[in-house]
Amino acid sequence: MNLLELARPEIRALEPYASARSLADDRGILLNANENPWSPESDDGLSLNRYPDPQPAALVRRMAEYYGIDETRILVTRGSDEGIDLLVRAFCRPGADRVLICPPCFGMYALNARIQGANVVEAPLVEDGHGFALAVDVAERISVCKLAFLCSPNNPTGDMIAADELRVLAQRAAGLVAVDEAYQEFSGRESAATLIRELKNLVVLRTLSKAFALAGCRVGAVLAHADVIALLKRILPPYPLPAPSVAAALKVLTPDGIARMREQVRLLREEKARLCEALESHPAIRRLWPGEANFVLAQVGNAADFVAAAADAGIRLRDQSYQPGLANCVRITIGTEAENDVLLSFISHRSSFISP
Ligand SMILES: *Cc1c(COP(=O)(O)O)cnc(C)c1O
Questions:
Q1: How confident is the model at residue 214 (pLDDT cuts 50, 70, 90)?
Q2: Quick check: helix, strand or coil at residue 126?
Q3: Would the CB of 300 count as within 6 Å of ligand 1?
Q4: Cβ distance 179 to 152 under 8 Å?
Q5: 3-state secondary structure of 177
Q6: Cα–Cα distance list, 321 to 108, 307, 331 (Å)
Q7: For the chain, how far is it from start to end, CA to CA, in angstroms?
Q8: Cβ 99 vs Cβ 145: under 8 Å
Q9: 44-76 per-position pLDDT tens digit
């Protein structure tokens, strides 16, 4: 498979925009970018008057190290949302190419595909009594799609895709296979990034939004073959990463920051086990899918009522009923011990007016 040939021809032909910061570094007297020479007050040394480095070397190095991949195989993006968008725009021709999704799943894959005018092909997951698994016909459908989005652990079901399954799918695929690992840290399982050397068409999406607690900073990464990274760079906006976000990302990716993240993941896993134990035996909960992420999926009698009653109690939950196969299902994120206590007391109060 020639990765470059998968890309939209107009993207391959594109002369990338050369920004001031990409043509010259930020040393010396900077009279090349029409910036204001004075930095704002309370700048904290960030030089916010200057355009940021498009791909800050220190951040690229630290993320590459943390994800265990070399620097030619990583693109730092504004969250994985931007990674999804870049992949669709670089590879899918409007009205011609297909994007595979496996619902119930994260909504941005289909949304970005539709914005681009690509055709969305669905291979719905199958509930097999343990959780939601890929359907047998995925392998067939993936063979006619330019791009496939898989999610492991999956949002909102929490299921993982095994490395062997990924290997088979990547080999069958007509194009790229993107595995969204937004929740990888919570699973404690190995990242699919280890397979990128072996499977040229495999792409892994990572983010600092979830386990690293930086959702407000918008920092993520695309991990892929160097040819894919080079293609995505052609359509990446000139200055995607705000300096304060880069500074925050550098801080969480230090040994201390990583240790803190791991400790929080450990606490959230403990809290999740406690929550699951209480929910599993609860009359208001018909089914529970614990999954491998920092949330659980629960089926209740009436999801809309349940979510509205929770909102009245000051708790925001996410109704997933709009997704195929998830009638009356609610996604519950694991919070702090105190927050989870409030949730549990809401649920035990609720059981008192549920008919047996
Ligand atoms: C939260 C989430 C993201 C969003 O990540 P950002 O890096 O914040 O854009 C991506 N994929 C899935 C499956 C998510 O649940």
A1: very high
A2: strand
A3: no
A4: yes
A5: strand
A6: 17, 11, 10
A7: 58
A8: yes
A9: 889 999 999 999 999 999 999 999 999 999 999
CB-CB neighbours of 194 under 10 Å = 13
Partner residues linked to 341 by β-bridges:
none
Phi-psi region of 223 (alpha: psi -120 to 50; beta: other; left: phi over 0): beta
- In this structure, what DSSP letter does residue 174 have? S
**pTM for the predicted model, two decimal places:** 0.96
Return d(Cα 84, Cα 220) in angstroms, integer.
Answer: 11
Taking CA atoms only, the protein residue closest to ligand 1 atom 5 is 80
**Residue 258 exposure: Cα atoms within 13 Å on the Cβ side:** 9
**Residue 332 host element (H or E):** strand 329-333
Residue indicated by tokens 């008919």: 355
**pLDDT at position 156, please?**
98
Helices (H), 118-236: 138-142, 163-172, 184-187, 226-235
Q: Are strands 202-207 and 220-223 parallel, antiparallel or unpaired?
A: antiparallel
For the chain, what is the radius of gyration of the CA atoms? 22
pLDDT, one tens digit per residue, over 106-157 is 999 999 999 999 999 999 999 999 999 999 999 999 999 999 999 999 999 9
Q: How far is the CA of 153 from the centre of ligand 1 (A)?
A: 11
Q: Ligand 1 center to residue 24 CA distance, Å? A: 33
